[in-house]
User: Which sequence fits this backbone?
């Protein structure tokens, strides 16, 4: 079973538990903290993936490190240790956040621009694309990319809206090349 399929299964299970208990926001916050700890502490992953360390030692360590998280989040981590699937924590968190956002009508977008967007520009993009995509909210992650020359490139999931000067110049070049043939 691939990692993404396994991560999705665990994320779906945790999502359903959270939905039943109406604590999806809390679970998301906790999972983001867990993800952050895994991202910034390579020794944690090394320890949890070490075959010389017993499962009980790993579980006790996780109980100590994540003592402030809910029982549902902790049980998920302990289950991942039991099933030797600690390596899917990052994917599990991503899947969970995606499911929560989709259930709430929230999408995340990467907006590439030549400079940092102002608050008004960000709000305007959120409003236009939320209506266009029939969602409630669009969260924007602004990425400054001077190579686009001007305009915007917006990526929401697998959809890309490209209105950059760089792309327009490429299209113009292609049209001129094909017109001269």
Assistant:
């Amino acid at each position: 079973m691939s990692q993404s399929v396994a991560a999705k299964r665990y994320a779906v299970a945790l999502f359903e538990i959270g939905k039943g208990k109406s604590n999806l926001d809390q679970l998301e916050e906790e999972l983001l903290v867990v993800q952050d700890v895994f991202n910034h502490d390579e020794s944690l992953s090394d320890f949890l993936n070490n075959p010389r360390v017993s499962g009980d030692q790993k579980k006790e360590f996780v109980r100590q490190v994540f003592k402030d998280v809910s029982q549902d989040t902790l049980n998920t981590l302990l289950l991942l240790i039991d099933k030797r699937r600690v390596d899917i924590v990052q994917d599990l968190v991503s899947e969970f956040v995606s499911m929560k956002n989709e259930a709430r009508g929230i999408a995340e977008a990467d907006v590439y621009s030549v400079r940092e967007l102002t608050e008004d520009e960000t709000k305007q993009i959120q409003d236009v694309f939320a209506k266009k995509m029939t969602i409630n909210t669009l969260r924007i992650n602004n990425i400054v990319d001077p190579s686009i020359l001007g305009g915007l490139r917006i990526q929401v999931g697998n959809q890309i809206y490209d209105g950059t000067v760089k792309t327009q110049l490429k299209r113009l070049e292609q049209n001129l090349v094909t017109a001269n043939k």
